[in-house]
Write a structure and sequence with these properties.
four-stranded antiparallel beta sheet, about 220 residues, alpha+beta
Length: about 220
């Protein structure tokens, strides 16, 4: 916590180069982008960066869309280097990949069936059916689709979710991104998440998702 003021100042100096955020609440920084909603060009909330504390530990978190923005601006390495200059521990890292799938609802349903049959794993242990959840709805084509959560998010070192990215984007009023299925792996400090993984999530993603969710490169076989 004694480093929090210095961390805040250093991180804000990086964020200010994006020119697209404001502090809406103490420690909560909201980013925006221009999007089309109901035929009108309007500012759309993009994501957040949060700064706070838990006991004697300062906390900093950024949503995935903010990390994408920093990459696009060429600021991502600066952001990570800034954090790395202070005593730190990566407590949660989300690594995601989008896959072009001809029939996303069918793919999501297949993952759901495998999850509740106890056929999936992220580590050496199989994920038990009672550690899985799903939130489904009806998409624009009238088909049931949605999100499957794999693993106990409250206390697992690794958990994941698989969801219909097209359905998610359309529900939020964005343009149709195509037939995309997103696989997202959350890695906690207990599994050794680092800033290096944040810089290049290739290894950490396939190390866990490649066990049963996606086809991994040969080096992970």
């Amino acid at each position: 916590l004694e480093s929090s003021d210095g961390l805040r100042e250093a991180v804000l100096s990086v964020l200010e180069a994006t020119g697209q955020f404001q502090e809406t609440l103490p420690g909560l920084f909201q980013f925006y982008e221009l999007g089309v909603r109901k035929g009108l060009l309007t500012p759309v909330p993009l994501g957040t960066v949060k700064m706070g504390h838990r006991g004697r530990v300062a906390t900093l978190s950024a949503s995935g869309s903010i990390l994408r923005l920093l990459r696009e601006k060429g600021l991502y390495s600066d952001y990570l280097s800034t954090i790395g200059a202070f005593p730190h521990r990566v407590t949660m890292l989300h690594a995601t990949a989008d896959f072009l799938v001809p029939d996303v609802p069918a793919a999501v349903q297949a993952v759901k069936a495998a999850a509740y049959a106890g056929e999936l794993m992220l580590t050496r242990k199989r994920i038990q059916p009672n550690q899985c959840q799903h939130v489904f709805g009806v998409d624009v084509d009238g088909r049931e689709t949605g999100t499957i959560y794999l693993g106990q998010r409250a206390n697992a070192d690794v958990w994941a979710k698989v969801y219909d990215k097209r359905h998610e984007r359309l529900c939020r009023g964005y343009a149709d991104p195509g037939s995309l299925c997103r696989v997202e792996v959350a890695v906690m400090s207990g599994a050794g998440a680092t800033l290096r993984d944040a810089q290049d999530p290739y290894d950490v993603f396939f190390n866990f998702a490649g066990r049963s969710l996606v086809e991994a490169p040969v080096e992970f076989a």
